[in-house]
Specification:
744 residues; eight-stranded mixed beta sheet; alpha/beta; 18% strand; seven-stranded mixed beta sheet
Amino acid sequence: MDSGQHLQAIINLKQQAVLARHRRLLVLSGDRSWVESLACKVLNKLGSESALWLTDQPITTGLSAHVDFTPAKKAIRHLGCERDFIVMDAYAGLHPDGFGAISGTLKAGGLFILLTPPLEQWSSYDDPDYERITSLPYQRENLSRRFISRMKNAITKAGHALIIRQGKPVLVNEFSEGLTEFAPDHCDINEECITQDQKEAVDAVCKVVTGHRRRPLVLSSDRGRGKSAALGIAAAKLIKNGAYRIILTAPYPEAVESAFSRLEVLFPQGKRNDLKFCCHQSGSDARSEVEFIAPDELIANSPDADLVMVDEAAAIPAPMLEALLKRYSRIVFASTIHGYEGTGRGFAVRFTKVLDQVTPDWKSLHIKAPIRWSENDPLEQFVFDTLLLNALPEDPCLSDDEGLEQLDVQWLNRESLSQNEPLLSQVFGLLVLAHYRTSPDDVRMLLDSPSIRIAALFHRSNDAGSGLVAVALVVREGGLDSSLGELVWQGRRRPRGHLIPQALSCFSGFKDATAMQGDRIMRIAVHPTLHQRGFGTYLINAIKDNAKKACLDYVGSSFGATPELLSFWNNNDFLPLRLGFHREAASGVHSVIMFFAISDEGVVLRDKAHKRFYEQFLFDLNDAFNDLDGNVVMPLLHAAYHERIVLNEQDNLDLHAFTEHQRIYESCSLAVWKLLVCSIQQGLLTRLSNEVEMTVLIRRVLQKKSTASVVSELKLKGKKELNSVIVTAARQLLRFHAALSSNA
């Protein structure tokens, strides 16, 4: 079949998309040079000023249309732009996150053009993007291609997709006849609100400023509903009504491009300078501004604002969102429900608890009607289905009195899982609810990464799939040969996938760690309705038993250190062996490695590494960790294995003089430090001290912050009040410590 007939079918597809205000999927399958050539002809024929091509080798000849080229991994940088055409080159690697991300920027009437190897050969193609989930001892060619098979099957079953295969005719009759004319593309850029849903969202945002304080709004939608634009429209209305400073924040600046674009349209007299928009109030010299500030900078500097708008909140760590919620009394959190940036459903489940506790009068609003395209868009449904963006676990039918005796742990076969769509959706949906950064990349990792195994906890009274209670992703790591282990210890090599042995060798200095083999629990998720019932512990114990049978050295985990997670892993007998020096960009907290020893060699490593960690952590509390939350400090110092601090006679004399007489803190600081560490070890601090006392002791005594900074942070009256807090808390701790010592 010649290219002219192919082009006519594609033109017909485009016409249908325009008339329906839908987006359509066009698959060009064949040799790379052939699919690239046909894609160029399509763009040249149909013409566009807003086409994006995701590839590793930009086209330099045969293309007259204007096209932006970018690697798929950088697709996120183009989220602020709307496109008439998107071309994704699967020869350069099928990047799941890139596919999910960029599809949402395609406008109504647009075509998503996917270039693939011959479909019957695609599953055996050595996809370059699989390098990201390959770890020793595996090579890229060893990996399965279940995710690509999933894509291929979805394409062949998609009734609204046009598939053009090299050397073969177009098989679908609906694309064989042309339509009479193009319908005008939908464009309402100069209207303030396009749908009633969007108008209600704008009104709700404005009410956050004009209504009662401490009533934040949570705004949710799927992609293409005008959520970000609504923030821009609301900002414009608020400025017109006298607001002077509005702050926009998001995980990345591109996320708020829509809001700034709306502002520029609604305020043509204003001026935008990169990430700040300024204009003068009507009839006065007063100046208003809307500025983007990154979340970490916003928390650190806490500038005043009439309103803070947090876009793509699902991609921002919960501790950072909570900090913003407590700092700003007028704040809006906007989130995409089905989003590659972070999953909105998981965000809603977890952040709702924080909102209920901190601001119980919070409001929520969901934008349902699409703006960028019409209802029942075929491409949107295709993306949702293939990337499992709409995956949700069913609610388990478990009564409160049903216990652990009805549970059953299964290690899932991934080949079977890939063929069992209901169970796959259950497993992935549970991970979505549990982890704020679960994304389409994780679907492929779940199906194809050879180092990962899946442990699932079912309730026996239900059929498999409907009784899913919890799930864990377990990574086998370690067992590196001595030559590679030496290079890791020297800091010259960092093999992908071997997180715990590498960290304990390279950062903690234990050379023998890389030779040991263990299981790392990469993710663990318990259904949100079943928390605090021991199901997570039950699954972890099953993973430990499996590791013992496999004669492994350890079971470990690495995660963002929060008080709740540290308590959970401590209660399951895991000990901290390392705390990252820097806050993770994704989570906003320090990552911690927790370790449970299995073999005798694992016990020796655990004891050495934990003792070293404990000493290093105490040493670093007034340096690298001098801003660490006190609620994280305490569980790390309260871990089971360490050498007890002992107060000697001189310490007791100094403490008596400090707490009962007039000795100054600086002259007794060592004794107070030893008392505080000892009290944390014994669990006394949380029992005997209030929140202000705990914060003062940790900030001033352990982290050695200056008097001025502690006074400022806690809004104390001055040095006298600060010293009074330390004396009162130390006196109480000393009394109970003395009582415990006398009874020992």
